Amino acid sequence: MTARDQVSPFKLASVLLQYPTLALLDGLGTLRAAAAGVSPRAAAGALGTFLDWLAATPPGQVAAHYVATFDLHRRCALYLTWYRHGDTRTRGMAMLQFTAAYRAAGFEPDPAELPDYLPMVLEFAALAPRGERLLAAHRADLELLLDGLRGAPSPYASVVEAVCAQLPGLRRADLARVRRFRAEGGPPSERVGLEAPWPPLPPAGARPIPPALPARQARP
Q: What angle do CA 127, 138, 102 make, to 5 degrees?
C-alpha cells in the first residue's frame, strides 16, 4: 500500500483494530494518508483522531491498552455474536452464518480466528458487498461495542465510530436490542449445561508478538 492508494475504510479499520505491531506503528504516515481520503468526513475525522493518539503514545503503552481493553474487558469484545448471544448455544449457530457468508462469496475464513472476529469481518466487507451486509445486520452489536469502548474509555471508540458511519443507522429492532442489552446488563449467560458448540478462543501467543511489546493474554 502506498500513500496514494485509495483504501476501503473497512480495510483501514480492520488494520487498526488488530493488535498493534511495530509494522503498523511504523506505517503511520501511510495510514494517515489513507484515512484522509475516507468519506464521509465524520469517518475521516474519527480515524484521524485515533491516529493522532496512536502517534503520540509510546508503543508499549498502546499494546498494554489494547490488551486491557479487548482481552480483559468483556463489554469491548471484538466478537460480534457475543453481544447478541453471550455464552449460550445459539452463538454457535450464529457463527456458522458468518462462515457460510464467507464461503458463499468465495472466501475461506482464517481457522486461527473465530468467524465473527470484527477485524476479519471488516476485511471481508472491504472485499465483498456480502461482507458489508453482514456488518449492517450486526449494526446493534457494533453499537454495543461502541458503548463499551466509550465507557472504558478507549481511543479505539473512534475506529468503531468510523465503521458505523459507513453503515445505515440503527433500525427500530436494533434500538430495541441495544436497550435490552443495557437494561439487562449484558447478553444471555446461561450455558444450558453443555459444551459450547463453537471452537475455543485462540490461546495466548497465537499471533507472533514483536519484541519490546508485551505479550497478549487469552481473551475473555
A: 35
